[in-house]
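Researcher: Watch the backbone:
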Amino acid sequence: MAPAIFFALLFLLLFSASSYLQLQEDGFISVALSDKGLDYAKDLLIEEAISSVLSLQVPQIKKSVDIPLIGNAYMVLSDISIDGVQIISSYLKTGESGVVLIASDATANLTMNWRYSYSGWLLPIEVSDRGGASVKVEGMEVGLAVDLKNQEGTLKLILLNYGCFVGNLSIKLDGGASWLYQRIVDTFNVEIEAAVEDAISGKIREGISKLDNSLQSLPKHILVDNTAALNVSFTDNPVFSNSSVKFEIDGLFTGRNEVLASNDYQRGSETCVSCGGFSKMIKISLHENVFKSASLVYFKAGYMQWIVDELPDQALLNTAGWRFIIPKLYRQYPNDDMNLNISVSSPPIIQVTDRDVDATIYLDIIIDVIDAGEVIPVVCISMEISASCAAQILRNNIAGNLSLKKFSTYLKWSKIGNLRMYLIQPVMSVILRTVFLPYVNLHLRNGFPLPVLHGFTLQNAHIFYTEPWITVCSDVTFSGHDSLPQLPAYSDPVL
């Protein structure tokens, strides 16, 4: 097939009728690669392809020619290898049915060995010669079209069409009586062109097969710590437009040994967050239900309760420090040490606004008195805390910092009678600011992993809020540690 016809067919594949016009099943994390991101991915793929082609060995070529008066001439080209490739231009195009990648005006340098022999009735003995040769390939065109489909939560890469076409090549012989055989070797042009085209086409098939296997092996869950995992399975086929590719990921947290049904959460509005005029490679949008599911998992696991036996103001952990705040406590338990048993009474209520993330937290603080070695619960104070969280990007994690907006207190129960809550409220403020918020932020700063492939790192990220979505717009860099896609394992706790 002629190159022009072949590449025209590749583009027709993009805009043929496809299943992507069907209704999408939504996830709670959306990842979109922009044309800038696709261009970066194209350059990485071409770099990897060139690296693999440089180790390519082309099968040897044999040819036998009957020369009048002389007899049968036999020539072999062997050890044919590609030792240099340069691509002048390339482009990647997306459409409804997938992606087309074309590299054009490519040049390649080949080296090979040649061996020549002939014998006939005029020469009763065989005459042979050998040497090396260099080949310059110009005007080479390489193209392929691929499709991506969701296959039970992973991605299946399908090679729709591919091809390689060599424009011109020139052969230069070295060694032996090369000047004598140059014209004969020139007759090998067609065979060398076909061999190079077949070899590179084979490399395309091999490369796509390896990439498909890697995509199929991507985990469906990322372990965050010993308690939680993030569901990163794909919920539907990727959506291709003329300038981007969008992936829908489940995105909900689960316990390590639990299965959480996504239909327990409603997604609501579509993601329509822009990057604020920034031209970025990747856009990752997280629905507020991602954070709600994390909150629920850690609440059920008992991570939202702890005993406080040290304070910046240690006097508050002795009844003497409370003698003017709760006199009855001091009179009944004079100079006894205390603990604060702090627990979140229900999963925090989380809502993404157009400015930040709002959190409503219901907290119980039980004052325990340690009397003669016995821990005695004396008072329980309940608090309703209104806080805001500013999202941050730390490496490939999304982290946060919680700030107190306001809080209210009320007496839940008491073994020492009624209390003057207006005296207790300032003490609770100190405990919130010096104990609760620093403890929570210590863990929020670790964050949790975004679905970014191993070897890639977010760079110059910006965060945008549009209820109920948080969107991270970022460029990426590639470390080059591993050419195969894989998601990382994490061990940093969230809470």
Observations:
- The chain has two domains: 54-216, 221-478.
- Residues 4-13, 15-23, 489-495 have pLDDT under 50 and may be disordered.
